[in-house]
Structures are given as structure tokens and as C-alpha cells.
Amino acid sequence: MASATSGGAPAQLHAGKLATPVPGLAAFANVAEIAFRQVASTSLTIEDIYQLADAIDAELDAGATGVVVAQGTDTLEESAYLLDLLLHRTAPVVVTGAMRTASAVGSDGPANLLDAVTLAASGMDCGGVSVVMAGEIHAARRVSKVHSFLPAAFASPRGPLGVISEGRVGLDTRAAASSPVIERLPRGPIPSVPIVTLGLGDDGVLLRAAADAVIIEMFGAGHAPAWLVNEIETLAREVPLIMTSRTRNGLVLRETYGYQGPRSICGPEVSSRPVR
Question: At the N or C end, where does the chain have fewer CB atoms within 10 A?
């Protein structure tokens, strides 16, 4: 991204130009850049990611050793997680981005892209889609964006799967664990699934909005105000309900409430945004 005269930073780096300013990239990898979408990551849709998964499958079928997806970081964790669920591949698929604009002093985009290509070109099986940022390799199923502007903005509850340094990839044994694979959802309207974060004195008004399913970010280890317990129990009997902690780390206690009806409880591995 390049700075605009207004002070903002519109997307101005297109496919075909991302790899050009990266020193040493062409020396060890034959990179073919493909334009997929030229939109802010906040404007990507689930259908976009379905089509991206199709495009990745096509490239790997054509003989690519690996694939790197470069996108804005605001929804990077969600895109990566959905790709992780949709793709049936052992070849490396790596998602990366940049926290600083291309014109900023210390722009991190070139280094992140070089690291992502290094991992993709290695052919290593990371047990699913991975996210590479700030020299770290994270599993797409675990990573979250945890800072609004620092370069090291992505973290996983149990730490990264590995690191990339001096052109070498170091992975630990956790990379062997694969994600569940889901079938493609029918093309059509996307279900309404709001994420509701409970707060002090919450009156539960957001829980009453019409929805196909609900994710509730609960207090602590899965707690709610006493006056909302019956309402949450009723909601769990009506629609799929996922409970997670608003702390974003640690277990949600499974015996706190004896809900009846369809529900699931999200543990420490995945934040509410990718679960949605």
C-alpha cells in the first residue's frame, strides 16, 4: 500500500509488483503473481474465499510447489482459517500481509512476503494452511490478530509453529496435526451469525436479534450474568450456540451450564472470529 496525499493509504500495489521490490526473492523461487481481488480485506466475503480456494486448488493441480496469499491483515485470520477448512492439500498454503504501508519507514511487507515464499517453496507440510508474519509461522486454526498496528500483531495461544530465519524454515512437531476438512457450503445466502460480547451490566438486547446461529463471548471461563442465564438457555434450544471466552485465551468450562439443545463450546485453540 502506498500513502495518499490525504494521509490515508489506499491499496496501490497490484499483483505483478509485490515481488519486485523484495531482495533475493527471485534467487531461490520462481514466483508467478496472480491478481485475485483488489479490495480492502474488510470488504472480502465468504464467497470470495470459496473462489480463492478454487484458485489455489487449480494452481496446485497445475504443479505449483506451494501458494502464498497476500491480503490485508484486518480479516487475515478469518480468511486463513476458512481456507484451512476448505483445502484438501499437503502442499504449503501460506497467508501473509503487512502491518505497515509500503512507503512507511521499516515497512514489513517485503520481509513477510519473502518469509512466506520461503515456506511455500520449501514444500513442507505444515498440517494445514499457515500464517507467516514477523518471522513466525502460525497455524491458521489458532492464530489471531492481537494488535492494531505493531508488526508483531499476530499470536497463537500456544505460540508459533516455527520461525523463518536466514532463509531457513524451522518447524516443531505440532505442525503435523491437521485440521478437519469441511465440504463447501451451498452457494447462496450466507447464514446470519452475530458475535455478541457480554459486558458489565449487559441487558442481553443483542441476544434477541434474529439470527441463524449465535457466538457469545462470555466472561472469564464461560460465565454470564445471572439474569441472562435463562435467556441463553432458551436461545441454545432455538439455534446453534457457540460459547467462547472474551479473554481469547484459556478453556471454556464445559459444566458451567446444563444447556439443552444444539450448541458447541469453543476451547482455547480458536477465537470467535474464525469460528463464525
Answer: C
Q: How many residues does the chain have?
A: 276
**Residues facing residue 94 across a β-bridge:** 68, 130
Dist. CA 174–CA 51, nearest whole Å: 29
Collapsing DSSP to helix, strand or coil, 131 comes out as strand
- The more confidently predicted of residues 238 and 274 is 238
Give the up-direction half-sphere exposure of residue 2: CA atoms within 13 A in the CB hemisphere: 6
Q: Which residues are annotated as a binding site for substrate?
A: 41, 73-74
From 85-89, 124-128, 245-249, 268-272, the region with the lowest mean pLDDT:
268-272
Q: How far apart (Å, rounded) are the C-alpha atoms in residues 179 and 177?
A: 7
CB 216, CB 244: distance < 8 Å: yes
Compute the average pLDDT of residues 69-89.
91
Architecture of domain 191-267: 3-Layer(aba) Sandwich (3.40)
Long-range contact set of residues 226-230: C-beta below 8 Å, sequence gap at least 24:
228/198, 228/202, 228/204, 229/257
Separation of alpha carbons 271 and 266, rounded Å: 8
**pLDDT tens for residues 192-247?**
888 888 888 888 888 888 788 888 888 777 788 888 888 888 888 888 888 888 77
**How sure is the predictor about 275, in pLDDT bands with cuts at 50, 70 and 90?**
low
Instruction: Please give the CATH superfamily to which domain 25-171 belongs.
Output: L-asparaginase, N-terminal domain (3.40.50.1170)
Residue 139, CA distances (Å) to 87, 172, 237 in order: 14, 12, 33
Q: How is residue 275 written as a grid cell?
A: 469460528
Residue-range domain boundaries for the chain:
25-171, 191-267
Residue list, annotated binding site: 41, 73-74
